[in-house]
Amino acid sequence: MDSILEVRGLEKSYEGFTLRGVSFSLPRGYIMGLIGPNGAGKTTTIRLILGLARPDRGEIRALGLDASTGGAAIRSRIGFVHEAPSFYLHLTVAGLASIVARFYPRWDAGLFRRLAWEFQLPPGKRVYALSRGMRTKLALALALSHDAELLVLDEPTSGLDPVFRRELLERLSAYIQDGNRSVLFSTQITSDLERVADYITFIQDGQLVFSATRDEVKDRWGLVKGGLELLDERHRRFFRGIETSAFSFTAVTDDVEAARRRFSGRDVVIEQASLEDVMFYLSKARAGTGPTAEEGGSSPLGTGRDS
Amino acid sequence: MTRLLLKDLKVGALFLWLIGLIYFLMTVQFVVFGHDAPLFLASIALAASLVASVLVVEWRVDADRFLCSLPVSRSTIVRGRCLSILAAGAVSLALWVSGGLVGDALVGHAGSVTPLWATFEGVVGFCLTIVGLTTLFMPCYFRFGIGKGSAIFALLLIPLASVDAAGSLVLLRDAAGSLGPRAMAAAVPGSLVRHAMRQAHQDLGAAAALVLFSLVGAVMLWASVALSIRFYEKREF
User: Fold this and answer.
1) What is the ipTM of this complex?
2) Is the pTM of this model over 0.90?
3) Among A67, A92, A205, B9, which one has the highest count of C-beta atoms within 10 angstroms of its own C-beta?
4) Among partner residues A51, A87, A102, which is closest to B6 by beta-carbon distance?
């Protein structure tokens, strides 16, 4: 499959944070969701893709070009929305668009006007007078107005009202319909991804947990609920994350078929794990802390898998 | 680069009133006091204010991140900024000369001394002062950003300005025996440069001196831009 974006062995170190060996591939015509808890490395990954920071190691190829040498050429074909868009506040919406337009050879002024109208962005309104959500809409309008082949959106749905959020997701789905364009967007709102993402890439503590199709994630990951007496050491090691209460446990596994075999005939409930479940249990497991008995009546346990 | 220049014009348009204000003030002081030295200073200050106003706006909105996410290379951003600074210098030069002409038409020359804006060394000295300041400022700015960069630029500027002022005082004392009313000229930046230019003008002729100083300016700018690009490419946003 023709990849629009390929990330291989990406590494970047900052004080107190290291992105380690992140690899994934986004084919043309698909939407990939980048998920992970706060500080997982999502924004760092996006900054590296856009050339706002330089990787210590690894390779990024976007639109067939090497990002280390073709930065400007790549960015001319990418539409980018930052989680906190930085615009010239004293300029009007139209004034800002006229600055941005000069940098993109395929800028479509008519499309921008239409999007601004649809997003209820008055052309004469100054940027400082726009709310955070409206600024995100402005960033989206700018990103969508130059026929970008790849949209890179960093937490685009935070700060948006639910109505526009859903509208945005519909737009993203429509955007890739020609099979030539793709979207990479990071979010913590996993329900957004369940709605539109074809691929899910999960990063935690700077490391890739998985990068797979949404269907693979659905098929592989499951929640297992049962009595605490079933949870011996061997089973504990099997699960990727566990939460226990006084009498029962809930655990997440990335091999639901193996879980079915393992607990066959036992009194457990095995169900499909949502992305939020996966994120929640993996984050808990990694942190090694969780709600105390006083707070929530349960205590998290360690994770790990046996071979 | 022109896209970046136009961007700076648009961003800086908010502060264009500075031009009118400083133009008015410098013409008034020239008419009232009849001395052209402050005109020079005011024009340099105008160029610095125009540049600083755009940079402060950009710093406030974290524009580096915005600019670097556009399809433009870091080296083009540096060259564009250099072009914008030189454009601000050109506007200031035009205002300085025209301000001088207007003041001169109103009150005539101050004494028998040819005003600075009407001399070869005055005009070329102005250009070289702008180029010198740009050369020094750009690597500081692109390495450290506007806040820390300006502070380091100021620290570098203080010894240079002190040497220039001291040299100017010596030159004036040697020329006139005592400073007297010409002491004001010691406050005009680039006195040593202008002295060197006057000498070159006398020894080589106007055309050769112009070529020589243009080459010096070009080399300084080239080195500054090259260093700034190296610095800026290492910055992360």
Assistant:
1) 0.79
2) no
3) A67
4) A102
